[in-house]
Design a protein that fits this description.
Helix content: under 10%
Oligomer: single chain
Strand order of the largest sheet: 8-7-6-1-10
Largest sheet: 5 strands, antiparallel
Number of strands: 10
Structural class: mainly beta
Number of helices: 1
Order of helices and strands: EEEEEEEEHEE
């Protein structure tokens, strides 16, 4: 059960990203049922840690007949280690209106999604209210299972949600 839900607005999080091997931090939104899902970011540490990191923005919005997800992955970028080391905070945000979903990093718009048929069918329906989820998953296939002292540092300074009228 989600304790906070919102439809439309500006959602932002100021955080650091972990640099540990196998880390999988994410800042995303999900409703009471799936679809839809908005991944404001997912970062895959992979087997090399920070040097292997790929940051993704994803919009998940349906299922194919075989049960697989239908999605839009409009933005995938290899992270510059010097700009995104785990001691530097960055702000990640979306602005979601009935006509568009825009994604920002440190105030710079990196992507805009405005396909009306998909927005109206999945993101603009009356029952779409989404909660905010922030998590730091661990991809176990890249972590040394013998290391009992493994940790991954994902620091969050703030999360803010604004309603856009």
């Amino acid at each position: 059960h989600l304790s906070f839900k919102q439809k439309y607005g500006r959602i932002e999080c100021r955080c650091t990203l972990p640099e540990e091997v196998g880390s999988w931090p994410a800042f995303w939104m999900w409703g009471e049922s799936w679809p839809p899902e908005i991944d404001i970011f997912e970062v895959y540490g992979g087997k090399k840690g920070k040097t292997g990191n790929i940051q993704e923005i994803n919009l998940h919005y349906g299922s194919n007949e075989d049960g697989t997800k239908t999605q839009m992955t409009p933005w995938k970028i290899k992270i510059d280690d010097l700009k995104f080391i785990n001691i530097i905070f960055h702000e990640y945000a979306i602005e979601w209106t009935p006509k568009k979903i825009e994604f920002f990093i440190d105030g710079i718009k990196v992507f805009r999604y405005s396909r009306k048929d998909i927005l109206d069918k999945y993101f603009n329906t009356d029952n779409v209210n989404m909660g905010i989820i922030i998590n730091n998953g661990i991809d176990e296939k890249f972590v040394d299972k013998n290391n009992k002292n493994y940790y991954s540092s994902f620091l969050v300074d703030y999360v803010r949600a604004y309603q856009i009228l």
